[in-house]
Amino acid sequence: MTMSPAEIEELRTAKLLLEHPGLAARISNLVGSPIERGFAMLPKRWNQVVNDATRKSIEKALDVALWTLDDSQPQSPSNWWHKLAVGTTGAAGGAFGLPALTLELPVSTTIMLRSIADIARSHGENLKLPDARLQCVQVLGLGGTSKSDDGAETGYFAARAAMAKAVSDAAAYMARKGLLEKGAPAIVQLITQVASRFSIVVSQKAAAQAVPVVGAVGGAIINTIFIDHFQDMGKGHFTVRRLERIHGPAKIERIYREL
User: What's residue 97's pLDDT?
Assistant: First the structure.
């Protein structure tokens, strides 16, 4: 089946969302200075705090994906409500700094996941299926590159490929067991893969909130940009998946790369 001009434009828009711009650039435009300034202001132990908060958040996201995402009929996603909720949690992070991250991030991530699930449903994903639910969790890993990524192989399809086996194995485990055991190798691998990517973006958020001029109001704005970034990743990802269901993955990837 030949792709229609409208579908090609949808794919072009998805590529723009998935490839440009990164969260660091968007936050730097807000703060008015390179995000590296924020990194210099973080305390020595910030890396461990971010890693712990990120892993806890991904574990919480998996709990939400398995137990509480519903499979109601597709409808327009409630993007603005979710942005308001995440912005409110960001105010706490901006006011209390890095120590608040361990409390704020799991809440923000849960709200973001629900927003991503709304977007997935609006593109025809069946959230009864473990794979569809884990695709929502995978979106959290699409917003930043991993330290282990090959510099020559970056971008959306490279990130998907890097996480594909972990998502597939975890989905098969969930379909077989019907429950979530965080110590199971398939689940541990998925958490590790997604967290390694999600932590890059969380580090950028933490650095921005470390800038003294940010404060509570700035923290709310940064968190709004944070969820907006992942809503864009969700829109792009589930647009691509919807077109793949119609035209096949190979064809969509080829046209995506040509655009």
Answer: 58
